[in-house]
Amino acid sequence: MPQYILFHKPYGVLSQFTPEDGARSLAEFDLPKGVYPAGRLDKDSEGLLLLTDDGPLIEQLLNPRNQKPKTYWALVERVPDEAALQCMREGLRIEDYTTLPCEVQLLEPQPEVPPRDPPVRVRKSVQDVWLEITVVEGKNRQVRKMTAAIGHPTLRLIRRSIANLQLDDLQPGCWKSIAREDIAWGAASSAGTTRSGVPVRYGRSVAGEPRNSKVTAPRRPGAWFNKKS
């Protein structure tokens, strides 16, 4: 039976099981055998990664013609004005291509996210803000290039969703199993939740904490990724 895993990739981890140039890899997180990433996140990006041994599903997700939306939270340098955000929405000329229209907004209120190791460079004289950006393309480092093109470099990037699959309160280094029925490409559903009664497995590569403890329902969404009230 195919396996479907949602994993919160931490900063500095490669989207592969083989270590390379001293970087951390997926091998240290006790993931089920036989699964592979359906797509990638850069080593310096964080957030939702889908792993599976379902080859046709991987092909469907990676096929650019299917245009699966992916949503990111991007911490950018300085506060973009509405004109800059509108340029992103309409499409930007980057290198040898023009990006497709996307959705982008300034997150209000600004979200609370866990500290990163190493921490993001902070300049007291510059205000950094979180944007929410939804794209349907998957070009190399596209979101970072888009924010740089409007003059607001990305300092930190977290993928929050892939189509209807959501990161929710899954913490860095943790993963959970979902059912095939939970993957509804393009559906406006209760994204990221599992069917009632479907076992969810959490794994974490943290000393002193249990791995793969079983529960019968997803944990209640907490304040880990909630916006400030």
TrEMBL record:
One example of a Gene Ontology biological process annotation: rRNA processing
GO MF annotations in UniProt: catalytic activity, acting on RNA; pseudouridine synthase activity; RNA binding
Pfam families, A to Z: PseudoU_synth_2
PROSITE patterns in alphabetical order: PSI_RSU
EC number: 5.4.99.-
InterPro entries named among the record's database cross-references: PsdUridine_s_RsuA/RluB/E/F_cat (IPR042092), PsdUridine_synth_cat_dom_sf (IPR020103), PsdUridine_synth_RsuA/RluA (IPR006145), PsdUridine_synth_RsuA/RluB/E/F (IPR000748), PsdUridine_synth_RsuA/RluB_CS (IPR018496), RsuA_PseudoU_synthase (IPR050343), TruA/RsuA/RluB/E/F_N (IPR020094)
Keyword Isomerase: yes
Family: Belongs to the pseudouridine synthase RsuA family.
NCBIfam families recorded: pseudouridine synthase
Name of the protein: Pseudouridine synthase
